[in-house]
Amino acid sequence: MTHTLRVTTVTDAARARVATVRAAAAYGVPPLERARLATALSAHLRQCLTEGGTWTVALGTQASAPERDAGTLHVTVAPARDTQDDGEPPWRMSVTCTEAGAPPDPEVPDDTDLLAEALLGADEDTAAVLGKLAEQEELVAFHREELHQTNQGVVALHADLDTAWRAQREAFTAERSARTEAEEARRRLRFLADASALLTTSLNHEEILRRLPDLLVPRYADRVDVWLFDHEDERLRSAPHPAAAVLAARSGRPQYAADHPGDLPGVDDQPPSALNPGRPLLCVPLLARRAPLGVLTLSPPGARWDPDDAVMLIELARRASVALDNARRFEHNRDIAETLQRALLTDLPTTPGLRLAARYLPATHGLNIGGDWYDAFRQPDGSLITVIGDVTGHGLHAAVMMSQLRTALRAYAVDGGSPGRLLTRLHVFLHVFLHHLQPDLFATAVIARFSPDDPTVTWAAAGHPPPVLRLPDGRVHVLDAKPGAMLGIPLRQEIADHTVRLSPGATLALYTDGLVERRARGIDPGIDRLAAALEAFDPADLDTDLDGSADRILGPLLSDSERDDDVCLLLCHIDREAGGEPDRVPAGADHLR
How many CA atoms lie within 13 A of 480 on its CB side? Predict the structure, then answer.
């Protein structure tokens, strides 16, 4: 059903508005929607009145299918047909009807009734709108409170997150700092370990002093000076030392001399050195077990030291002190052992028809000296005893044992006896009388006896490398007849004698294992090399220069040696002028060349 109202004046517009509101109310349009419809219609009608002319307001309903009790209310405003402007489309608005109602009376009351009804309807709609607005205001207030609380929660959450972030950042910073400190500590410990290993591998105090600057410069020090109390030569005894170094030597405490406090743990601060006032100095005493060794003076690589680096340097100085003390004690013991060894080596006697040449070389590495010896002396019957031996072990104990064996051998030789008999008695002496003093020391030896007017030599060996014989024609033999066991082992033994005929021009070489033995190859290749060296000599060289020949043997044989053991060589040469029969190959000899 459609109702059409014509609007020309304001009164017509009011009537159309009232009719529209009444129709909307009759069809059950909610108040809020009615208010929106009335407001929109009033605004459009006001615009139409401004433009002038006659306008029509059409009210129509359309029921929803399939039921007919509800639908849509359509409101259309358009110019009247007689004034219609084809270029302007009509204004339309639709609202949903929730209830079925009786169609409104199209007749609108007079102006007074119209005004009253409009006012009442407007008040009613306004009241409905205000009620809705109040509800919405409450809802808005509720949501505003929720939003405020949410904002407060967000602010608190942001505060908590900021606090957590700051705590996490501080934790990360602390962790990074701890990791850096741990890396620095690990670096210092690694440096100390490497430096200690490098310092303690040498038993030469001068080598240790040379290694210290290489370790410290330029990372931990700009300059390194070592003042050793009893190792200065005469030219340096009057050289001045910093006052802090002198104080460190007297007090035994590290001293720091600079124009500013060092704040170094365990270090006393002192005024700057008068010798170099612009350079800070750290003076650390080198303390040994028995007495102070000296003072290590360092200047920093920059303006000053890190305290942890200073602690590390003090610890390094302590370890260097131990290494220096060990090296000096070792050198002292080695010097004593070498002096004792050389003092016990005899001067070779002169015998017609027989010339002797001996060489003794102490070990150059380690304390491996004191066990090798050679000797040559006459027996009462005029024969000449030559001996070369080696005491197991090294150092002072071996040197003392060697001196006792040498003395005992000479005493036994006074009573005469063959080389085998002398070695047997020496074995008993070592096993019975000396083992309670040095139970871990044993000995090896070779004794050869040359008799006057006898072209044969008698020899015996006890656990020693075999003698090597060069015949006058240059052939070389190793006298490897079965030797006795080592002297001093818990075994009863009778050491046998062996004889070999020597003709003029023959040379017998006695030696210790330091000449021929190498760790990687054993002893047999070394004996072969000794035999080859003897074979290579010209006979005239042995006749005219036996000492030089001994030197020429040592050169090539020791060229590949680490010299960690001492060496003895004794050459016994029969002069060609002595006469005699040609040599035969001796029994019990290995023909090498």
Answer: 10
Helix 396-414 vs helix 419-429: crossing angle, to nearest 10: 130
The CA distances from residue 77 to 2, 49, 470, in Å, are: 13, 12, 148
How is residue 460 written in tokens? Answer: 């015996």
CB atoms closer than 10 angstroms to residue 296: 28
> Nearest 5°: phi and psi at 338?
-70, -40
Cα(80)–Cα(5) distance, rounded to whole angstroms?
Answer: 10
First to last CA, the chain: 147
pTM, rounded to two decimals? 0.54
What pLDDT shows up at residue 235?
A: 36
Q: Are 495 and 420 in contact (CB under 8 A)?
A: yes
| Rounded distance between C-alpha atoms, residue 484 and residue 523, angstroms | 18
Report helix, strand or coil for 142.
Answer: helix
Q: Is the dihedral of CA 366, 571, 486, 428 positive or negative?
A: negative
- Tell me the pLDDT tens digit for each residue of 201-260: 888 888 888 888 888 888 888 889 999 887 544 333 446 889 999 999 888 899 999 988
**For the segment 313-344, what is each residue's pLDDT rounded down to a tens digit?**
999 999 998 998 888 888 887 777 667 666 66
421 phi and psi angles, rounded to 5 deg:
-65, -40
| C-beta of residue 3 within 8 angstroms of C-beta of residue 23 | yes
Q: Which two tokens stand for residue 179?
A: 């990791």
Sign of the dihedral through C-alpha 515, 521, 524, 526: negative
Radius of gyration of the chain (CA): 61
Return the number of other C-beta atoms located less than 10 Å from residue 153's C-beta. 10
**Contact assessment for residue 19 and residue 104, using Cβ atoms and an 8 Å cutoff:** yes
On whether the CB atoms of residues 321 and 351 are closer than 8 A, the answer is no
Question: Following DSSP, what letter does each residue of 94-146 receive, concatenated?
Answer: EEEE-S--PPPPSPPP-HHHHHHHHHHHHHHHHHHHHHHHHHHHHHHHHHHHH
- Going by C-alpha positions, the residue among 369, 370, 378, 381 that lies closest to residue 404 is 370
CA 61 from centroid of its chain's CA atoms:
95
What is the per-residue pLDDT for 581? 47
Are 338 and 369 a contacting pair, CB within 8 Å?
A: yes
